[in-house]
Each structure stands twice: as structure tokens, then as C-alpha cells.
Amino acid sequence: MSLTKEQVIANTKRYLDTAKGEKYGFMTPELETLLGEDFIKAPASTMLKMHNAFEGGLIAHIIRVMGHAYTINNGMIDSLKVPMKSLIKVVYLHAIGKAHLYEPITYKSNIGKVYDFKEDITSMSVGERSVYYAVSSGVKLTDDEYIAIINHDKSDNLQSEWHNSIVGDILKCAIRLAIIEEKSLA
Fold first, then answer.
1. Which of residues 184 and 174 earns the better pLDDT score?
2. Helix (H, G, I), strand (E, B), or coil: what is residue 123?
3. Tally of CA atoms within 13 A in the half-sphere of 29 that contains its CB
């Protein structure tokens, strides 16, 4: 699967309209500049067998995750529901660390690899890099938002499993559902 240029443009507009909008906006000019064109073109993964390993795949993935997160949150009992502004911020920021992480490579058909990790970038998890980009660009995060983004790609430690925020648990579930859906579309 891949996206047309028009689909990439429409997804980018949708993302930015929400991220910069009056109601839910959190995007600072500094963050928008930092992310730049690399964010718009970024894939969500490096290999075809994974998910959204194509230009514009990251933003498409984030939008799909948002749909699942919205549905999950609306199904929660009122005492566990997360404010929509916080949910959108966490979902829309959770993977921005992939913006400058990958570079296209000559297709390796034997393993289905179409992107590789840039070698000149400091090693961090995507969640750590996403928080770094956001906070260093003036985005304010609550403790719950911070831990949700940091923990979203950690599955091998008890701290991230049992001491996550509610918004973090919603994010993890929404990501899993989005990936299952994306793999079925590939």
C-alpha cells in the first residue's frame, strides 16, 4: 500500500489543522519548523511486512491511532475518560520522533526493507525522541502526557506496563489496533 500525493497533502492538512487549531492546538511554530518536510514524508516503519512503510505513512498512522483512541476513550466510564485535548496531544505527538529517524534505501526484496535508520542520530526510543522534540520546542506536557508518550513504545519493563497513565494505556491499545488494521490493508 502507498498513498497518493493528494492523500499525503490531505493527511498533513488534517494533522496540522488539529495540532494548530484553537480548540486542541498544541503545535508551536518551533516544533512545526523542527519537524518540517521530513515529518510529512516519514514512514511509520522500515519494512513492508510491518505497517505504513511508505511516504506519508507516519501521519496516516497517527490519524488512524487517533480514531481508535477516540473510540476507546468514549467507551470508558466517565471517571476514567481522558480530556479530549490531552488525548489528541498525546496521540498526535507520540511518534513525531520518527520525523528525522529514517532514510529511504534501495529496496531489499529478500527482507522487504525500504527504509533504514539514520546512523548520525543520537540513540533514543521513539517516545523519548518525541518528548524531546516537543518539550524542546515549547510544548507543555502534563506528567500523564509525558509518561504516556515516553512509555508508548516500551513493553519490556514493569514500570511502563503497570505505572502508566490512563491516556498512556489508551494510546498503547489504539496503536495496537491501528497496526492490526494497517497490516490488513497492506
1. 174
2. coil
3. 0
CA distance 181 to 175: 10
Residue 164 host element (H or E): none
CB 145 within 8 A of CB 90: yes
100-110 confidence digits (pLDDT tens): 998 888 766 66
pTM of the model: 0.92
Cell of 24: 486542541
Total Cβ atoms within 10 A of residue 109: 9
pLDDT digits (tens, 9 = 90+) for 25-48: 999 999 999 999 999 999 998 887
CA distances from 15 to 56, 96, 106 (A): 12, 12, 29
